[in-house]
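I am writing to request your help with a piece of structural work I have in hand. What I wish to show you is a protein chain and, alongside it, a tokenised description of its three-dimensional fold. Could you please explain, in whatever detail you think fit, how the structure tokens follow from the sequence? You will find the record immediately after this paragraph.
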Amino acid sequence: MIDLIKKHPVLSFCLFTAIMLLPNLDVIDVSIMEARNFITAREMVNDGNWFLTTMNGVPRYQKPPLPTWLAAFSGILFGIKSVFALRLPSIMFVMLVAIGIFKISQLLVMDTKQSLQNSFIAITSFYIIGIIIEEPWDIFAHGFMCYAIYQLFLLFEKERGYWKHAIIAGCFIGFSILSKGPVSIYALMLPFLLAYGFTYKFKHFKTKVLSYLSVIILAVIVGGWWFLYVRLQDVDTFKAIAENETNNWSSYNVKPFYYYWSFFTQSGIWTIIAFISLLYPYLKSRVNHLKAYQFSLLWTLLVLVLLSIIPEKKSRYLMPILIPLAINIGFYIDYLMRCFKTMTDKRETFPVYFNFGLIASIGITFPVLAYLFLKENISNHLVTYSLASIVLFTLSVLIIFYLKRKNMNMVFRLTVLFFASILLTALPLAESFKSTSYNSISNLKIEAESQGFKIYGNNYISPEMIWYFGGKIPFISLDEGLEKLPIEHKFGLLTKEALDEGVLLRLRNNFIINKITTYNLNSVSEASKTYKNRLLNVYYIFERRS
């Protein structure tokens, strides 16, 4: 099995990613950012809005369309209502990130095993997986850019035959721009260029000037044509959206410079290992490839610095740092695999025992903790609970077994399997934690259509609600007078909160108003810190009086 993985490394981590993520791809509820993307994809397919993109019938040019096109194509193939289908392309780009890391690592260390380990570190890093749901455009932008950086690396290193790498790099940088504008250029490529220039220098720069220019020209053409098209077709809307997006960078969600300093925690199970991998004075004499380690460390830190300069900060913006960080972690893992058996200094061994012992403790205590959380629901999920408990407990015991024997090769592999097993066996249990107040809106459209009336929204309906509704919800305002209300005899209305008595009293002269239900997409109870009022909508039916 190990030999097969070494012979087909790319196939091995792509298959691993598929097995880890695909079976439960639609278990987690659609996030607000996903909902926006999915609605736009649905309207591409249903309304033909492929270039002048819309959300709920309103122009949405905040995000370039390439990820949405891919989601829409997947929806055409597997069902435009399917969350699985619309999330599927993002899984392909987790694979592309892993391929890019593997290829870059091979150029750095000329070691297939270490390069393979780096890819597995990446695809088991918490936020590389989390970002595909929280901010789906990012994995596309950074996936394209990661592969573009690999091509740039080849362009910089080769003395001949480098033009094809210039063309591929230019196209993939363009694809990245067409996924999320210049974000990945700033957050991933610019730090790479600075780190490469400082560590390896740009060789034969003058002889390659034309190829470098071709990269820039191709990137601008491939990545910029849609922005130009929209700018020419819908000038005023494009300008307004562009100004708003630009202002957000300096005035929205502003955080201090040091906000990202705990970035290594985004790697999840590798947090402690990631922190140690950043300790240059400790590792510089212990790694096999010092210059390559210097490069990955500098690349990681430059991403941190450049992201920290931007006033607007969100934890999800840190995702690109996990790409060079995975390579950086790989140097420390390689050192542990080579030398852990002979280590005697407790200052070196204790963090390792603590990190992997902590991971193992999660699996060992999982059966008890899951049982306490499930409580009376356990009978409805007995098979899933039993499978998850057996798998995670067994892997945890094996991690401890091999950790005691200082076999870091096996500890690493088991840790990777442990992470995958959580997503594969334990994630389905999340459905059992849904609040009893959860009330999906997914049947409302069909019910309204069967009774022959339309649904409207009062002022604001969340993107998640619109997505699960399954179609557009036109907005009206109850404050603009009766002449602005729908002319139909009967219509449904979704409101952000219950209508107050004053509004009801004013409208009841003309309408019979019945409050039907409250739709609630919160999976958690109202006492939870993650409970969101925007996921609530009160549903009324209005009928005109004769």
